Amino acid sequence: MPPHQEVPRHRHRAQAGPRPGLRHVATAAAVASGTLAVVTPVTGLDLGPTRADLRLAAQEVSDGPGAPFAEAAAAARDTPVLGAEIVRDAGLLDPPADASLAAARKAQALVQEAAERAKAAAELAARGLNDPSCGLDLGDLGRVKEWVSDAAEFLGCAYGETDLIGVAQRANASDHPTGHALDIMVRGQKGDRIADCALANADELGVKYVIWEQRMNDGSGWSTMEDRGGDTANHYDHVHISFDERAGSGEPDLGRCA
Question: Which of 65, 100, 110, 252 has the highest CB neighbour count under 10 A?
Fold first, then answer.
């Protein structure tokens, strides 16, 4: 009679691997969220007999002609790659998803542009300046030349001055009747700043000369004028700007102004 064999009461079923369907669902979810990543466990990984060979190979690459490529590869590993971008680059992203990605990038660019505009506006405000293209009403200037109108908008908006005179009749010789002159009604330090700003952008605005507080400057420095007998005649209540017969180069820069 054969010896008694004890039959195990419980049999342990071999643990099944992850089902393919679940694996595909997890991959799709990772791609959809834009965070697909490949993770390799390091703890407990036995490199075996090839460890020394790998170290030697790494040393040879770092010392040999392939070093720049190895450094480039190492730098590339530091840059995160989104799963959505991997799928897109592989040509597997469907048109709607591709359009969504493009729309997101455009939105990000618009946000960055708005932030830059806000920063520029803050810098101007810190210097007491405003937006140089504020849509100032220039209807009362008359038929001034286009570059005179542009200068009026640039300076008027920048310094918040709306009391402007363009075409006008004068008893003495003047550029006003032909639309080549601009008066900005202002007094004090703001007038100093406007006059200096106009001169700093003379080439861009097409400025010929500036008269302010009984002095004239054609770009070569201030010279004192004769006394004409009053604040307006001596230009103490306005900055007078005369312009060239031709337009300037355009694109004046408020960065030169105070």
Answer: 252
Rounded Cα gap, residues 198 and 219, in angstroms: 10
Instruction: Write the pLDDT tens digit of every residue in 118-133.
Output: 776 676 666 667 766 6
Which run of H or E residues covers position 165? strand 164-165
For residue 233, is it within any domain?
yes
Q: Which of 157, 174, 244, 163 is nearest to 204 (CA)?
A: 244
Tell me the C-alpha distance between 21 and 98, whole Å. Answer: 25
Place of tokens 């003495």: 172
Model-wide pTM > 0.70 = no
Classify burial at 72, counting beta carbons within 10 Å of its beta carbon; exposed 0-12, middle 13-18, buried 19 or more: exposed
Q: What is the mean pLDDT of the chain?
A: 75
Instruction: Please classify residue 151 by burial: count the beta carbons closer than 10 Å to its beta carbon, then call 0-12 exposed, 13-18 middle and 19+ buried.
Output: buried
**Contact present, 159 and 183 (Cβ < 8 Å):** no
Question: Over the stretch 107-120, which tens digit does the pLDDT of each residue have?
Answer: 998 898 788 767 76
pLDDT tens digits, one per residue of 165-190: 999 988 677 999 999 999 999 999 99
Tell me: do 100 and 165 sit in the same domain. no
Of the residues 85, 105, 126, the one at which a domain ends: 126
95, 193: one domain: no
Domain of 107 in residue numbering reads as: 67-126
**Distance between CA 152 and CA 158 in Å, rounded?**
10
Which residue type does 186 have?
A: V
> Is position 36 within any domain?
no
Q: Please count the residues of the chain.
A: 258
Residue 244 lies in a domain: yes
